[in-house]
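Hi D.,

Good news: the full-assembly prediction came through. Inputs first.
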Amino acid sequence: MGKDIIIRVGGEGGEGVISAGDMLAKASARAGLEVLTFKTFPAEIKGGYAMYQFRVSAEEILSHGDTFNIVVVLNAEAYEINKGLLKPGNVLVYDGPDGGIDPKPVEGVVQYAIPMTKISKVDLASPISKNMVALGAVVQLFSFPMDSLVELVRNKFRKKGEEIVNINLKALEAGAEYVRSNIKKTDKFTVHPKKPEGDAILLSGNEAIGLGALVAGCEFFSCYPITPATEIAIWLAKHLPKTNGVVVQAEDEIASLGHVIGASYAGAKAMTGTSGPGLDLMTELLGFASMAELPLVIADVQRGGPSTGLPTKSEQSDLFLAARGGHGDFPRIVLATATIEDCFYLTVDAFNLAEKYQMPVIILSDGSLAFRTEKIKRPDLAKLNIINREVYSGNGEFKRYEVTDSGISAVSLPGHPGGQYIATGLEHSETAAPKYSPDYHAMMTEKRFRKIENIEDEYAASEYDGNGDEDIGIISWGLTQCSVREAVKRCRDKGLKVSALYPKLVFPVPVKAIRKFASSVKKVLMPEVNYQGQFAELVRAHAGINPIRYDIYGGLPFTPEQIEAKIKEVI
Amino acid sequence: MEVTQQLKPKDYRSDIPPVWCAGCGDYGVLASLTTAFSANHASTANTVLVSGIGCSSRLPYFVTTFGMHTCHGRAVPIATGIKLARPELKVIVVGGDGDNFSIGGGHLPHVARKNIDITLIVMDNSIYGLTKNQVSPTSRAGMVTSTTPHGSPDVPLNPIAYALVYGATFVAQSFSSNARLTADLIGQAMNHKGFAFINVISPCPTFNKVDTFEYYKPLLRNIDEIHADKGDKVKALSLAMTMGRESATVPIGLFYQEKRPSYVELLSGIKTRNKGTNNPDLEKIIDVFKL
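Then the structure:
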C-alpha cells in the first residue's frame, strides 16, 4: 500500500491546519509525488471547523477522492464531525490524552494518541505550535520527507525571525520524536518518495488564474475583494507590476468592471475576478461591454448562493447568470475550469477569445478549485498562442462597428488620429452614431451574435473520452469533471461501457459535440453541483437532448464514489 | 503624433447635432468645452470624453475626440480605467447631477481621494430631464416634480462641499452662460495634475421652473472677490456651505486647488520599485511556483 493515500486534517479555523497542510503538500511534491489538496474552512475569522484534505500518490491523481484513509483531529469538534466516517482500514490520529478527545474504538481502525496540546503547551511552552507538533507526528508516522519539510518551515518563518523558526522546528521535531519513542506503527500507510521528474510547479486554482492572466498579456486588473476569488488579486497585485501592469482595488464590483471596460477601450488587455454576488452587480456593464464590443475577462470563482449563501463552499450555480445574466440580447462566452491546469490554460484562452471576438469572456471556477493546490507540468510558454484584437490600420474610412461576415470589425485605440469614435451602449450605426430604427437594431444584433456562431469549430470546445458505442455517456462541466474521470476509470476497470464528454466551453453550448456524443450512447447522465441542473437545462434547450440529471447541492463537490454509484444505478 | 496646429472651437464639433431643448444650459457647456480645447491645443486623438446617461451625457457624440457613452452612473470608474491604462490620454467626464451624485454617487468619494488624474464636469440642473421631470439630488427641498407632487422631502446635496470633503484636489463652480469663466476653468482643470471637479450650474428650461437663468443671474458672484487663497480648504468649505439662499450669493470660480501626488504617479512608483518592464521575464515569474 502507499500508492494513493488521502489524509484529512481537521481542527479549529485559525489554528494553522491549512498552513501545515500546505507545507506537507509542497514537501511531498518536492519528493516526486503527485499531490492534490482540498480545503474547506469556516466563513468566520477565527474558530469554526477547518478541514484540509490531502491526497498523495505515486501516480496521476484525478480528483480529491472519496473519503480519507487517515484522519488527524486536533480538537474535539473535528473528532465529532469525522468519527462517523471512520471505516475499517482507516487510521485515526488524535490529540490525546488530555486533548479533550475520547475516541471509542472502531473495529479495524488504528488509533494513535499524540498528546499535541500537552507537548506544545507544557513541554514547549508554545500553545500555538500544536499544528507543528501534529505535522511532525504525521511526517514520522507515514514517512513523509522530513528534510524537505524542515527547509519549508525555515523559509516560511524566516521573515518572522530566528526565534519563531526555532519554536516551529522544535515543535515539528517534538511531534516526530514522540512517535519514534512511543508509537508502535500498526497501520499499512507509508509514502514512498520517488525521484522527481521533469519541471513541475505547485499552485492553487486562483494562483493559476493569476498566472494565466499574466502570461496572456493582461495589463490591467481591478477587483473588489470577495471570497473565494480574492487570491487572484492578491497574486496579481504582487506580480503584475513586474510586467508594467496595473492592479487596482475598486470601491465595488461595478466600479471594478468599469475600470476594466475603460482600460479595454484604451487598448489594454483587462480583467476582473469576482464571485457570484459580484457578478450580479456587474451585469449592466457586462451588457455594455458586449454592445460596445470591448474585449475583457471576468473570472467568477463560484460559491454557494443565492445571496451571501455559502461564502467558503463551492457550487456550480452561477452558470445561468454567466450565460444569461443581463437585460436584452447580447453574446458572451463562458468557459469552465475543472483542474488547476485548466485555470491556467483557460485563462489564456479567455483572453485570446475576448480579443478575437471583442466581447466579454467569463471563466467559471469555484471555491474548491480556488483553494486546491496541485502539482502541474510547467507550462511551455513558447507553445502558447497569444491573440490580439484587430486594430484599424489607419487606411480608408474607419467604421468602428462595420457590419462584416464574421461580425468582427477593427477597433481603433485612443491616440490614433482618424480613428476617433464613440464607444456606445446605445444602438448605433456602423460609425457609432445613435440609431434606434428596427432595421439597425436587427442588423447590429445579428452582427454581434454572428461573432460566436461558429465558435465551436474555431475553439476546442470539449474533450471526448470514449469509443463511440457505450451504454452510458456522462456530460459534465467544471469541477465535477474530476470526479467523473475517476469514476469512469473505475467503472471501465469493472467492465462497464461508459464514455464521457468534458466541455470547456459551456456557453455558447457546444451543440454539435453534444449531439454527436448523445447519439453514441444509450443514455446520457449529467451530474452537477446545483439544484436546477443548470447545464443540463441549457443542453436540453440548445442541443435538444433530454439527459438524466443528477444534482447535489450541499456545498461540496462530488466524490468519484457518488458518480460511480449513479452510473451503476442508471446503466 | 498629431500636427499641433491650433484648431478652432468649431473644429472640435462633430456633424451630429445636439438633441437638447432650445435654451438648455448644456449648449453653454459644450461651447465652453470646445473653446477650452482650442485654447489648450487639445488633441482630438489623445482626448477621451466619457459620459453616463442623461441629457448632458449625450455630449461626447457632438465632439470629434474619442469618447464613450456608457451606463448610468458609471462614467467615473470607466474614465478611471482609461486613465490608469493610458496615463498620457486626457480624460474628461461629462454628465449630470443625477448621474454623478445619485446613481454614481458611490464612485465620487473614491475618484477624489485616490486623486485620479481626470476632470469631471457636472452639468447641474437640479432635475432629471431625460426622464422628464423627477427630483434630483440637488433639487431644493420642497420642490414639486412628477415624483414629488407634494414637494420633495429631501435635503439637497451640496456638490462643492461634497467634492472638498472627499479630497478632490481641484474644486470649482461655474454657470453655463458664463462661457469665458467656464472655458477658463475647464482649461485649468485639464492641466491640473489630479482629480479636478467642476460643477457647472446648467439650467433646464423645460422642467425646472425655479432654478432658472433669471433666478441665478443676480446671485452669481465671482469667488475671487471674496476668496483669494485657493489652498485654504476650510475657507472654501465654509463658502460652499453658506452659499445659495443663506448668503444670497452663489460664488463661481475656483474654490480650492491642492498639489498631491496623483494615483498615476503613485502607481508608476510601484512599477519602478518592482522593476516593471515591457519585456518581462515570464519564466522568472513562473519560478515563484517552483518546488
